Amino acid sequence: MANAGSVRDVATAGAEQISNILNSIREKALSLTGNDAGSKDSISRDVKALVDQINTIARNSNLNGINLLTGRPATVTTTKTVTTLSPSAYPPPTLPTMAALPPASTLTSNGTGSTLQTVTTDAPSANAGDPERAAKALGTPPENASASYTVPGGQQAGRMDVAFNAFGDGDVMEVWQNGTRIAATGQSYAAGGGAVSAGKAVSGENIVSFDYDPSKGDLSFRFNPNGADSGTAWAVTGVAFNDKTAPIASVSTSATTSQARGTVPFNYDVSVGLKGEKISIGSRDLSTTGLGLDSVDWLGALGSAIGVVDGAKGRVNEALSHFGTKARSFDIASLFNTKLGGVLDIAVGNIVDADLGVESAKLQSAQIKQQLAAKALSIANDQPKILLSLFDKKAA
Predict the structure, then answer these.
(1) Domain-embedded: residue 156
(2) Of 351, 372, 389, which residue constitutes the final position of a domain?
(3) Which of 5, 44, 218, 348 is the 20 to 30 Å CA partner of 30?
């Protein structure tokens, strides 16, 4: 357990450094606005240098051949799927990354309501782009399959059309505002923000539509509110924002698949109990590839670049949370094992003391029996002498 704790500590330290670098990258990216071309080029070079530092830290966060910030070497199949919605009349709201995907798979927004989904696996197949199949191949199920997000919708009223991909296994998505469920999978569109019934599990790509009223407050997106099956994956892959009378947005996808040597996620299993109990620490790809930073145009659309950085920060924060949770599990297991060892030591001591007491009693019993036997033999030997002494007295 001590070695496993050191592996985890190295990964945590590396992730914290990467988080700090991402904060610096975000600050520099924001400073690109309003500068002349020469200043922008200089800032862009600084940003790229910081991005290179992330790769250096991730690759060097290695102890005894185990690296929880890159994964294990493998022939990697990467499928990139671009999901595009029909154009919006109004600027779509900025949604957080809302997805349950396996490690090393990412979802990033291009700032116009569409997304790029990247699924990575070491088990190439015709369905390599399906995150649920990828998760099974990697042996690492998607996390946060049951989750909720609070989203400010902005000041513009209108109808939102949200693209929700539930992939193969059924998933539920619901949208709430001001205590009312205004949209849900498997339910018809309710004009005017009217209430709808509870969501039903759906598969594949879906469009969930609802009317947004900014006077009613933030939106709450809830996914699988009654729990989710292990291994299920889903993703919000786009959003369109239009007038309430406009046609429902349409969605299109395109995918490309490539193979190369790289790394894939793995579980680092550590035995912590006498009966083979284990704690599994999942690796996280915090390289620039895993964080989606490789293809960013830092001199292009600022909103797109900031969106990618924020997505990367979210992945790093999730990794830190994961390592922190495992650290607490290690502490609990270590404390239990320490207390169990103390109890066993006392128990063994008690058993030894009890055995010594029994043997001592047996020895004393044997000694008393021996003394009694000797006394009985002595009395028996003395009886003839006593009788003879009585005759001698009579004769006298």
Answers:
(1) yes
(2) 351
(3) 218
Q: Which of 111, 118, 80 is nearest to 95 (CA)?
A: 111
Q: What pLDDT was estimated at residue 94?
A: 81
Does the pLDDT of residue 389 top 70, yes or no? no
Which are the contacts of 102, defined by CB distance < 8 A and separation ≥ 6? 119, 121, 131, 134, 135, 138, 140, 141, 142, 233, 265
Q: Give the DSSP letter string of 243-269.
A: -TTSPPPPEEEEEEEEEEEEEE--EEE
Instruction: Name the residue range of residue 337's domain.
Output: 1-71+266-351
- Find the radius of gyration of the CA atoms of the chain: 36
Query: Is the domain of 197 the same as that of 253?
Result: yes
What 8-state DSSP symbol labels residue 189? -
Decide: 68 and 263 in contact? Cβ < 8 Å. Answer: no
Nearest 10 degrees: Cα torsion 187, 130, 293, 147: 40
Same domain flag for 59 and 114 = no
CA distance 251 to 301: 23
- Under the banding of pLDDT at 50, 70 and 90, the label for residue 391 is low
Q: What does 126-167 look like in DSSP terms, one character per residue?
A: TTTT-HHHHHHHHT-PPS-SSEEEEE---S--EEEEEEEE--
User: Total domain count for the chain?
Assistant: 2
224 and 136 fall within a common domain: yes
Q: Is residue 142 domain-shared with residue 246, that is, in the same domain?
A: yes
Cα atoms in the Cβ-side hemisphere of radius 13 Å centred on 116: 17
Looking at the predicted structure, is the pLDDT value of residue 288 above 70?
yes
DSSP 31: T
Alpha carbons 100 and 147: distance in angstroms, whole number: 9
- Among the three residues 265, 285, 300, which one is the final residue of a domain in this structure? 265
